[in-house]
Structures are given as structure tokens and as C-alpha cells.
Amino acid sequence: MQGLEMPSPDWIALAVFQALFMIGLAPLATGFTRVLRAKMHSRKGPGVLQDYRDIAKLLRRQEVAPNPSGLVFKVMPMVLIATMLLVGMALPTVTNSSPFPIAGDVITDIYLFAIFRFFFSLSGLDSGSVYAGVGSSRELTLGVLVEPILMLSIFTMALSAGTFDLGYISTYMATETWQVPGAVLLAGAACAFAVFIEMGKLPFDSAEAEQELQEGPVTEYSGSGFALVKLALGLKQLVVAQLFLALFIPFGKAAELTFSGVLMATPILLAKLFVVFLIAGVIENSVARTRFLKTYHLTWVGFGIAVLGFIFYLIGL
Amino acid sequence: MTSLDFLLLSIILYVAAACGSLLFYKQEALASKLSGVLGTCAGIAGIAASIPTLLSGEVIVKAIYSPFYFSDFVIRLDGLSAFMLMVISLLVVATSVYSISYMKEYFGKGAYAMGFFMYSFIASMVALVVCDNAFYFIVFFEMMSLASYFLVIAEQNEKSVKAGLQYFLIAHAGSVLIMIAFYILYRETGSLNFAEFAKAELTDMQASAVFLLAFFGFGAKAGIITLHGWLPQAHPAAPSHASAMMSGVMVKIGVFGIIKVSIDFLGAETAWWGYVVLAFGCVSSVLGVLYALAEHDIKRLLAYHTVENVGIILIGVGIGMIGIAHDMPILATLGLLGGLYHLLNHAVFKGLLFLGAGSVIYRVHTKDMEKMGGLAKLMPLTAIAFLIGTMAISALPPLNGFVSEWFIYQSLLTMSKEGTLAMQSAAPIAVVMLAITGALACMCFVKVFGICFSGGARSPQAAKATEVPMTMVFGTGSLAVLCIILGVGSPWIAPVISTVASTLVDTQAVTVTQGFALIPSDASQAILSTPVIVITLTALFIVPIALVAMFKGPKMASRNAGDPWACGYGYEDKMSVSAGGVTQPVRSMFKPLYTLRKRIDPAPLMAKTLAGTTNGAGSLEPQFDNKMILPVVALVQRVGRVVQNLQYGDFRAYCLYIIVALLVLLFVPLNLGVN
């Protein structure tokens, strides 16, 4: 492996383009989830583009914030979008290498997610609303439960590939024979579990469930701020899904940066995303919400799988 | 001026600050101003003394006159001690300026004495890191413990005296262990000079004994878990700028000691030493942050976070030691780099957080977070600095806490990738521990900032708080700027610390930068450029701003009024979520670990032993009286009482005595020979 370097202008262009593409795609992804839910509930829901319409309308509306809210409440939507876009720039989505390796190291990405979580939950406390505050607490708790699973499964992959760089892990998975297939599969399962939780799905989180906890920290947002938060939450779902895809299903991507290669890889990526959101949606709508204080029973299982994956790596399976 | 001159100047200024404070005990305002200004100058001199050595790697050794025939007073300014000197001095500058206004709280309560103890405490720390002789090291170590003990009992109430006693006990239990370790080294080398200690040839048993003694001795000072009990009691009791120094610097003297003995003297030859350090680091980091979560007293909470961060530092040091033992210089350098970098970072952000907490307490007059709230609007400058501190300690990129943890993660990958089976399995455990620690720290500091600074005011005092004086804002603000510099400027700072680490490992410097980016010696493992991340993140803010601008439309201006939504009921301030409420899920999920807290702390046992000893002494001491003096007294008294019966004041009885006496005299003289 040759060393990583600062990206050249065309790679940066690709990075910016893919980040913007993702933010454009985010309402479609959440809209698709809504359609799927309506279908499974046997009701006629809004169309797949409904979230675009919602966001556009909200952006034109006045913002009303409660009295106690301050600066954090104000900047939170922008911080969320900026951090998720940065992760989006780093992901190797249509190419084997990361277009922006400066932020393409897994540790950096996981800590960029931490910025998201930090500001997301802090804004809940900042609004002074008790429901938002409880939502913040739950968001943070989920973080504590998910982080070890995500980190250990990714660490197993980093060890197999010998690097923390997303692009290199991706290339290793796509092009070389796996030394430890059992470990990769188990780590993949654990990572999928963690990513599923991070996407904010049932049984862990219920974005559109009971009104008092609706979307937790978002309770007090309205108008353009709310539009940005909605966009950011959708973007996060897309980004974590692609993080998983980049690590574990990196097939059908361009090895070199050529226009035709990227063009070929894009439909494959969209198909993969479709499948991921389909599976996630089906699982989400066929389970009930767990009691929050019992969630850790479930996440222990995920952590157990991640540990098993690492043990498989150690014994070389 | 040479480095040594600056060093000497710095120490003289500290002593002057201490004595000056004592001299003007009648005018406390003048005393605190004088000591604050002198302390600031001393800190600047300290920085000037450390920079040349840090940049050039030159080692300065100088013997100074010692009045004792058995020990030379040697000063040694090498990479590690210059680094420590830098850490101390940076924090001193911020805290000294801060103290100029802050000490007003303590006027009439012995502020002049606090100034004296504060600067003798700092002076002894500075002398300690540069001295190169075991005797003087112990002397300065004791001075540091003693001076800080007086700072802990500054408030003179029952709580602080109790905290002080516990601190005193653990500190001295630790120094006894250190003395034994030094004694073993002294016996083998016949000299008290550290230079000779480093050449000592010990058997494996001896070396391990020295390591364990030093590890637990210095560990008590560093506050590793099981020996951490004094931290959450002592730090809240001391004045805030003193707790910033204690938590930011003094506990690091413990880490410094561990590095000095195990790497410098013993050469870290045995691999299991490294694992011991690593294991204690992992456990300390997770339990420290977990216990912090449950606290509502802001300074106790920060004290527990010190346990956490010392844990993270020790993870780095442990990796370094394992690397040295296995002869893997790159791994060793990376681990030590992570550990030392975190040492510096922790001093900066924890100092900032303690000073920030002090500012809040200065206005609200309580340490209870439940009585704060809404301070961000009333104290905006303090709030922004504090927010930067909380982000740095939560290891959010691109601030300094992230950079050091990044290096530790990278060294763990290197260790697992290239090492033996033990190293391969130890690394992921540390990774998971670090990940949990990171997530918990994030939660804890969302709570701290959210409860103290966000939302609505939770008490009348909080509602009428105002921004603190400018000197205090300088204290917190300068450290906040430093948090950003140490994070964003990491491509320029990491090589300097890396050089310090590689001199400890005794190897060639390891490349840790490539252009503006950090690399863990090998650019194929990862690459991180904090400046580029800052620029990109800032640039990406354009996207949401542009979106909002695009859909601007004829909408009304945003409104910031009205109560938060309360499900249709009337809103009250008490409805906002409490500090306990935020952490309730985690506290219930990790319940077993919380019950551990009381069991693993040896402090109650030590206190009980001490109480037993004093009671024993108390009951032994009167035994002497009871068994020897009292019986004699009782005998004399009994005789007296019998004699007393003879004279009860009756005139007739006296007449009887006279008659009896006459009769006796009539008969007895014949026998006595009186004619």
C-alpha cells in the first residue's frame, strides 16, 4: 500500500459532489421509508416526494423558539448538516478509495458522529423543554450502547486490512481474498446492527411515535430550523448506511477516478441503498418499541457478536 | 539568558509570590494582586525556560551547592522535564491571572495564607520536575503534598478537614512506597542521584518490586482507580484555581513519576509492567467517567473526570512500555506520544473547566448544578470558553482532546497488528474501553453544559448572575484558545512531543507529520489534518446557510419567546430535565459498576485504621497514669481520709487527744531514754 496523501482537486470535486448528492437524496430516502411504512400499515400514505415538499414548505416558515433557548439551539441544525456532509465527503461510495482521506479515517468519522450527537442532545437541553431533555438523555444513552459495538466491529476490519482508512479497508474487501472470512461476516453483522440503531429506527427509537417524545431533542424546532434538522437526520441515515456499505459491501465501485467508472458505479450504489433502506424499513415496521431501560439487553447481543467476530479474527477463521 | 537562568528566575518569582502574599497579610487585596502578578511572570519565565530544550532536545545538567553531604543538588532539564515544566507554566499563567479577581471570595478567610501555599505548592512542583536526585525529589514531593493539603483545608469546615485528612493519608501512603522504591535503588547503586539510578543493575525480582512500589506510590498521586478516593473530596474543597492546578498538574506529577521510574530508571524491560499500566488505565478511564456521570456537584464531577483522563494517559504510557519491552520503537513512541499529548491536553481543558466552574460558583455561590441553569445568556464569554472545554474533553474533532486520543487509537491498531497474541488481544479491549469512555464523556459534558448554562435559570441566584471580571475571563478564555491551538495546530505540535517520546524510548524520532497532516509513522494506516478539517467544516456551513437563504420568501422574522411545550399544561421552570434525569438510564443500566464504587476505595479502610490507631494511642496513653500514678494517689488519699477521721473539729475530741498524749508521754519516755 502506498501512503495516503492530501487529495488532488479532482478528488476533492468528487468528494464535494457526492456530499451534495447525498443531501439532495436524503429526503428521498426518508420519503421512501414513509411509503414503505404506509404500505405495511395497509394505508394510502403520501407520495415518495412528500419529504421534499415538507422541507421546502418548512424552509419558508417563520422560526419560533422557546424563551430559554440560546445559541446552541440556534446553531445546532447547521452543525449537524456540516458534520454529516464532511463524513459524506470522506466515504468511498462510488470509488474504491476515499475521495477525502483527511477525514476518511474511521476514528475521525466516529468522532464526527460524536459532534452530531453532542450538539443534537445539547440543543434538547438548551430548549428547556422536559420532553426534549428526556429525548436528549435517550439519544446519549444509545450512543453509549452503540459506540463499543461499532468501534469493535470496525476495529476487526481495520486489523484485517491493516489500516484505519475507509478507502483502504474498502479496497481490501473488494479486491483481495479475505484472510478471515468468518470474522468479516460476524463483524459485518455486528456493524449492521449498530448502523441500524444509528439510523434511528424501531425498536430503539421511534421518530414518529408518541407525541411527547417525538424525535426527542427536535421537539421545540419549527420553521427553517426544523427543515434543516429533518434534512440532517435524513442525511445521517444515508451516511451511516453508506459507511456500512463502504466497509462491508464495497463491490461494483470504480477502481480509478474516471467519469465513466463513476457513472457506472452510481446505479449500483443506488441499488444497494435501496436494499438497505428496504431491509431496515421492513425490520422497523415489524417490531414493537422496547422499554428503553431494557434496551441494553439487546445491545449486549450486538456487542457479543462483535466480540465473537474479533475472536474469530484472532484464531484466523 | 539561558534556560537555566529562566528556570531560576521562575522559581525565585514563585518564592517571592509566596512570601509576598504572606508579608502583606494585613492587606489581602494587595497580597493577592501581588502574588497573582508575580506568579504570572514566573509562569512566563517557566515557559521561556522550557522552550529551547523542547525545540532543540538539548539536555542541561547542572549541579548546585547542596548543604547535605549525602546528596548532590543536581538540576536536569531534559525533554520530559522541560515538557512537564511547560505544562505547569502554561496553567500557572492562566490560573494566576484568574486568581487576581477570584481571591476576593476568600478575603477575610485567610486569602494571604492561600496565596502562600499556592505558590509554594507550584514552586515545589517546578523544582520537583527538574531535580535529579532522590533526596530532593522526596523533599519537594512532600512539600507539594503538604502545601496542597493546606489548600484543601482552606475552607476550614468539617467537610474540607475530612477531605484533607483523607488526602493526607493517601498522599503519604504513596510517598512511603516511593521512598521504599528509591531506597532499593539507592542500596543497589550507592548513590541518590537519578543518573546513577538509571544505571542500576537489578535482578528481575528487584526491578519488578521497584516498579510496583513506584506505580502504586505515584498512582496514589495520579488518582488511578482504587487509589482515587481522595480526588472527588479534595478537589471540590480547594479554591477553584487551586483545584485547577491540582487536577491539571499535580496528578500529572504522578504520571511523570511512573514514566521516570519505569522507563527512565528501569528501562521498562518487562512486558507485564506495561500491561499493568494499561489495565489500570482502561479501568480508571471507564469507571472514572461513569462515576462522574452520577455527580451533581460540578467540582466533584470534574474531579472524577480527572480519574478518567489519567486513565487515558496511562493507556498511552502502558502502550509505550509494552512497545519498549518488545523492542518496537515505533509503537513505543506512538503510545508515549499519545499519552504525553493527552497529559498536556488534559491539563489545558481540565484547567479551563475548573476555572469555568469557579467563575460560575463565584456568581451563583453553589457547587450544585441543579441550582444553576441559563447562565449562557448571562455570562456569555465564560459560557463560550466552557463550551470549548467541554467539546475538547469529549474528544470532538478538531480540538485537542481528539488529537491525542487519535494517536492512542492509532498506536492500539499498530500494537494489535504487529504484536504477540497478548498484545493482539489487549488492544481491542483498550479500544472498546476508550470508545465507551468517549461516549460517556460526551453524555456527561452535554449534561454539565446543558444543566449549568442552557435552558432556564433554576434558582434566583442563577437568574441574576452577571459576567465575571475580565481577569477571570482571561483565565478561561486563554485556555480555550489554547485548546483550539493544540488541536488545530497539531501538525506543528505533535513532532515536538514525539521527539520527547522518542528520547524516552531512546530511538530515532518517528515521523508523525506529512505536510499539514498527522500520520501514525505510516501514512497507509491513516492520515488526519486538523487544519484542513477546520477549513472544510467551516466551508460546509455555507450549505445550510445557502439553503435557508434560497427559500427565504416573505416569512416573518424568527421569534424567540414563549414557554417550551409542556403537553398543554402551564410551563414551570422546574419542568426542565434535571441533572439526575439526564443520566438516569445509564445509571440504571450500569448499576453493578456503581455499587463497586464504595468497595474498591481503600480510603475508608485507611481512615478506620487511623481512627483505630489514634483510639489505641488514646487509650494507651492514660494507662501509664491508671496503672502507676493513680494507685499511689489513691493510697495517699486513703491514708489521708483515715487521718482525717482523727480531726473532725470536735473540742472534746481534742481534749481527749491531749490526755491520751500526756498519758503516752508519761509512760513512753522511760523507754526512749529521756529523763
Tell me about this structure:
- The complex is a heterodimer of chains A (317) and B (675).
- By secondary structure, chain A is an all-alpha fold.
- In chain A, α1 (9-40) packs parallel to α9 (259-286), α3 (71-90) runs antiparallel to α4 (106-126) and α5 (130-161) packs across α6.
- Chain A is built from ten helices and one strand, in the order ααβαααααααα.
- Chain A has one domain (9-315).
- The mean pLDDT of chain A is 88.
- Chain B is an all-alpha fold and 675 residues long.
- The mean pLDDT of chain B is 88.
- In chain B, a hairpin with an 8-residue loop joins β1 and β2.
- In chain B, strands 1-2 form a two-stranded antiparallel ribbon.
- In chain B, 75% of the residues lie in helices and 2% in strands.
- At the A-B interface, α1, β1, α3, α4 and α5 of A face α16, α17, α21, α22 and β5 of B.
- β1 (64-65) of chain A pairs parallel with β5 (559-560) of chain B, so a sheet runs across the interface.
Short overview:
The complex is a heterodimer of chains A (317) and B (675). Chain A is mainly α and 317 residues long.
How many domains make up the 3D coordinates of chain A?
1
Tell me the overall shape of chain B.
Answer: globular
Widest sheet of chain B: strand order?
1-2
Number of helices of chain A: 10
Assembly type of the chains comes to heterodimer
Set out the fold topology.
The complex is a heterodimer of chains A (317) and B (675).
Chain A (H helix, E strand, L loop, with lengths): L8 H32 L9 H10 L4 E2 L5 H20 L15 H21 L3 H32 L4 H10 L5 H18 L24 H26 L10 H28 L8 H21 L2
Helix pairs in contact in A: 1-2, 1-3, 1-8, 1-9, 2-8, 3-4, 3-8, 4-5, 5-6, 5-7, 5-10, 6-8, 7-8, 7-10, 8-9
Chain B lengths: L2 H21 L4 H29 L3 E5 L8 E5 L1 H24 L8 H20 L3 H19 L5 H32 L4 H4 L6 H19 L8 H7 L2 H26 L5 H23 L4 H28 L3 H36 L10 H4 L1 H14 L6 H19 L2 H33 L6 H4 L6 H19 L1 H16 L7 E2 L2 E2 L11 H11 L1 H9 L8 E2 L18 H11 L1 H9 L3 H44 L4 H22 L3
Antiparallel strand pairs in B: 1-2, 3-4
